[in-house]
Amino acid sequence: MFTRRTILTTTLATAAASVIGPRASHAQQVSRKAVFFDKDAPVLGNPKGNVTVVEFFDYQCPYCKKSHPMVENVVKADGNVRLVLKDWPIFGEVSIFAAQAVLGAAQIGKYDVAMEALMKTKGKLTHEEIEKRLTDAGFSMKDIAAAVNKHNAKISGILDRNYSQALAFNFIGTPAFVIGSAIFPGVLDEKGLKDAIAKARG
After folding, report:
1. Total domains in the fold of the chain
2. Contact, 164 vs 30, CB < 8 A?
3. For residue 22, pLDDT beyond 70
4. Is the peptide bond before 42 cis (omega within 30 degrees of 0)?
5. pLDDT tens column, 117-152
6. Peptide bond preceding 175: is omega within 30 degrees of 0, i.e. cis?
7. Domain CATH code at residue 132
């Protein structure tokens, strides 16, 4: 039976170690392909768009959640932007749990539904709130747990790579963006996002 504290003990421990553990490679350079075209990273917008917007985020980050509708609207209105969402769970165990659960939902083809359910929450999350939101969105937590278990290595790998990339860019918090050859370590307003997309396209 699934419990909120054991969605996958191994994955949780691995992800937690990635978030808080020391690494020798923090400052290493990451390739454009690794950042923009990670085959396992969720992509919204136009998968074949000629500009890629990469956002590092946390489901407990109030700024991420507040700006999310704007980011989606800009991407949708443009029509030619790939939006790559990279979970960077920096606010502890609950953030890791949320990231795992949504990435588990991605493995059953329902990433956007799960992601939107948690992005609509307010303030800090709890395990109970995450479960409730996902259940209300039509998910079985048993199915999500099974997906996380089955795809343990894949999900751990995504979180590990996201973490390494964020530190390679010297990001210190969420949200943070990579657009074209520019990095934006903080919130972007609508004009700033549109300008960054136009510059990358130009």
Report:
1. 1
2. yes
3. no
4. no
5. 999 999 899 999 999 999 999 999 999 999 999 999
6. yes
7. 3.40.30.10
